[in-house]
What we know:
By secondary structure, the protein is α/β, with parallel strands linked by helices. It has eleven helices and 25 strands.
Amino acid sequence: MDNKSAFNVSQYDDNVRKVIPFYDEIYSQIFDIIHTYYAQHEKYKAPFSILDTGCGSGTFAVRAYKELNIDEMVLCDPSENMLSVAREKLSGKNCTFRCIGSENLDYTEKFDIIVAVQSHHYFSREMRERAVMNCFRALNSGGIFIYTENTAPFSEIGKDIVLKMVENYGINSGRTGEEVTSHSARYGKEYFPLNISEHLELLRKTGFETAEIFWHSYMQSGFYAVKPNYYMSGNAKVYYEYYGEGYMLLSVVGKTDNFIIPDTINGIDVIYMDSDCIREDGNFSRITVSEDNRYFVLKDDVLFSRDGKNLFIYNRKENDSYIIPSGVEVIEPSAFSGFKLKSIVISEGVKRIYQYAFAACHDVEKIYIPYTLEMISLKSFYFFGTDNLQVFYGGTPEQWKNIDVCFGNDELMNAEIHYNCEEIS
Length: 425
């Protein structure tokens, strides 16, 4: 045998329909799910990045190129003979072929759609869990995993009945008695089906938010699962997306007393955050970060990058003054937005201040700006300061003029500026 199915590659396409009733309808259902799901997600409409794992002879991919706008198509199968047939069918298409099974997939957040048709039931339970986790990891947040497998009935009587039904179907499709009996004998020896409940439990255990059955006929069941793009922090949803080599937190939607920043989500590091959206959407009184977090550190209710170079969120409630610690180089968007500070010292070493960083800090009476500052982004100081705002600058008038200042910082630029100053206390 040149693959794990019941048939040699040369016989596969002709014979699979003799043992799997409604085989072509299964694919129709799969594409119906794709069209229906993504019709509700405008930003994902097209083009798609797709992985077909256990691709066999390429049946899904051939139809996908007819129905979907495809940016990237990767076909994986542990049988090089199967891949040879798929390559021939998809000649001229922009596909990547890999001789690898789902248990050895090594992608992270790469695909919008992952399909596995009749391929995972050959695995042991441990290997199946690994395969599903690999598919989960390879899927983009918000992406969909669709697969079909031989499934086990819930009882021995049910097993006997369904195997006999499959044999009858095979006889009516032109197979011999010996062929159908031999096919039934593979159950539990060459493939190892789970029942429907076990499938759904595995999907949810892996981390899929949505896990549903969409097809069941004879022994075949089809499932789809959606990878979440948020986690819960109290009653709030914290949305995230893949960013380089880990997750970036995008926004906090809803009210929570405690904004929890996890070290990892589903085994993937949380490495950055869009502090602008976190601040705009979030409604939280405190922030929690573990002491061992590799990317963030919380010091006196102020959130920094672990190396201290980025200041993400200022969250001190009662203070009327703040000195930004030495070592900070970047003040992230909306970091101080709306806080009732009266005095701010931006210490030497800060180079960039991003949009809305100090917006709506109406009560500031004096601020120290270091000579190291190179850029003030869009509306970093929008609606900033009192009418008597005093700006103390560590450099010369010529150095002040060389700062790249974007639109929307009039309150700062029109204030009284004192040059060659030392830090204020």
